[in-house]
Amino acid sequence: MKKLLLKLVFFSIPLLPIGLIAEYMLRSIPNDYKVKVKQYEKNALHFSILCLGESHAYSGINPEYFDDNGFNGSHFAQTLNYDLEILKRFEHNLQNLKYLLLPISYGSFTNRLENRWEVKNYSLYYNIKQKHDIRYYTEILSLPLDISIDKLKSYYIMHESPLMTDSLGYSTLYSKHNPDKNLVESGKKMAAVQTAKDYRNWNKNRKSLDEIIARCKKRGITVILFTPPAHSYYRMHLDPTQLNKTLLLAASFAKKNKNVFYLNFLRDDSFLEDDFYDADHFSRTGAKKLTNKLNTFIEDLEKSTEN
């Protein structure tokens, strides 16, 4: 056994420098997490409106259409525990924040980003340290080798930009035309992915949102929870129990907290087929429409506080 271990160590030594070089090169590739961290560090003092959350916010909120200075701090698969960590991480930068927008989607209280490769983006680029597998503190070990190689080729050889975020944090991916849009197929698929097998994350996510609201209340920040619109081909596949529990819990936060409002756009029939990138994400026109609705709500709040 000792001889086998010695052989493994002996043969792995030459690979170590290669691994370290690959790690450095992977971390040097621009990414949306770096872009958003830099915006928090340089411009967060000017943010009046901040939106966090997952891909429904990433595709659906375009700060260009806010009357006041806004920023979209959402990412793919970003769950409430990381919304909380980002808020804590940049709390001192967000001195003039007035409104925090948070999407409450079908999976918001059942999904929780833990023990998945996306965790490494928060560890490496947001400097948010969590107790996770050592792999998630590296680029090279967090993803399959073939994906890492493709990333290296794409950026260093093909000179393709991996960035999908504009200067306001809005997704340039979803703002493009989707030639493969299939609302029927994507609706069924995404509903299945987001339907929970159990509710083990429910209380942890509820507590994360509780803490977000408490921190905002302490600093005079209004929290606007909103359930984004979705196409009927997505809605028809949702589990009624999970959906109702989610919507009722979201509404309860608004009832219990004076600084919290809840807007449910899930069945808003003003959103048409062209407003969707797929069955539960938005095209650029859909993002404009949703952002305008939230902007109008904020305008009305502003007027009510003036009177």
Describe the structure.
By secondary structure, the protein is α/β, with parallel strands linked by helices. Helix content is 47%, strand content 9%. It has 12 helices and 7 strands. The chain has helices at 2-12, 15-28, 32-43, 55-60, 80-89, 119-124, 145-157, 183-194, 202-218, 232-235, 240-256, 284-306, and strands at residues 49-51, 70-72, 99-103, 222-227, 260-264, 276-278, 281-282. The strands form 2 sheets. A 5-stranded parallel β-sheet has the order 2-1-3-4-5. Strands 6-7 form a two-stranded antiparallel sheet.
Strands in their spatial order, largest beta sheet: 2-1-3-4-5
Structural class: alpha/beta
Overall morphology: globular
Number of helical segments with 4 or more residues: 12
What does the secondary structure layout of this molecule look like, with pairings?
Elements: H1 2-12, H2 15-28, H3 32-43, E1 49-51, H4 55-60, E2 70-72, H5 80-89, E3 99-103, H6 119-124, H7 145-157, H8 183-194, H9 202-218, E4 222-227, H10 232-235, H11 240-256, E5 260-264, E6 276-278, E7 281-282, H12 284-306
Parallel strand pairs: 1-2, 1-3, 3-4, 4-5
Antiparallel strand pairs: 6-7
Helix pairs in contact: 5-9
